[in-house]
Structures are given as C-alpha cells and as structure tokens.
Design brief:
The chain is mainly alpha-helical. The chain is built from 5 helices and no strands. It is globular.
C-alpha cells in the first residue's frame, strides 16, 4: 500500500517537476525561480490527482480538498525535498539545459531516489492511519 501511495504521489510530483523544469529552463529563468515553479507545480498536480479520485468517490470539493491536503502534503514535501536536494547536490545538474543528457538523467534519478526515500515515510504514516490511509477511507 505504501509503494502504491508513493507511486501515486510520484506521478503528480513528476508531472509538475518535469513541467516546471522544462518551462523554467526553456524560458531561460534562473535556478531559483525554475525550482520554485517546479515545486509549486508538483504540489498542484499531486493534490489534483488525489482530488480527482476523492471527488469521484462523492465528496464535496471542500471535504475532498481537506482529504487531499491531509493525504499528500507530507509525502509531496518529502519527495520534493529529496528530488530537489539531489539535483542541487549533483555536479552541474542545476546548470544543465534541456538538450543535455545530464538534465534528463539527473531529473529521472532524483525522482527514483525520492520514491525510495518517501516509501517508508508513507508506510509509517499509513500505519498510523494518516497520509493515504485517509484517502482509502473514502474509496468504495
């Protein structure tokens, strides 16, 4: 269950992270605004995927938003911290351009590392009835 929850989170994070990095890099933005955009989009898409499922289960928007925030905030935050930390620490990754293999390799590996680190966090949270356990309570 934890791996599935982390994969769900990773999907939203990866969409936002990749989109933010591509937009910021293509527009020639600096590292800080590109990273901020990527993180904001990662949270947006992560929450959106959860919202979609919970809304389908019949919850109203406000209740669904509360469930998404409770379910995903820690998971996305840990994933983004690890993902962006790897990119910052990887030599030359912050300065790689879209056409550079380093851009795509460092981004892909940072997401894999984030998945590996975040899965036990989600397992711990689910075991305590938090995180994605909150979402699963609303599935029929």
């Amino acid at each position: 269950m934890a791996a599935q929850a982390t994969l769900h989170c990773l999907t939203g994070c990866a969409i936002g992270e990749v989109l933010g990095m591509v937009i910021g890099t293509a527009l020639g933005w600096g590292n800080a605004p590109t990273t901020v955009l990527a993180v904001v989009l990662a949270f947006f898409f992560g929450y959106s995927l959860t919202l979609r499922g919970v809304l389908r289960a019949g919850l109203g928007f406000r209740a669904a938003l509360r469930v998404a925030l409770a379910a995903d905030t820690v998971s996305i935050a840990v994933m983004e911290l690890i993902d962006n930390g790897v990119i910052v620490l990887w030599p030359n990754a912050m300065d790689a351009e879209l056409a550079d293999g380093l851009f795509w390799i460092s981004l892909a590996l940072s997401l894999v590392i984030a998945f590996v680190v975040t899965t036990p966090v989600n397992k711990w949270m689910i075991g305590r009835g938090k995180g994605h356990a909150v979402v699963h309570a609303h599935h029929h």
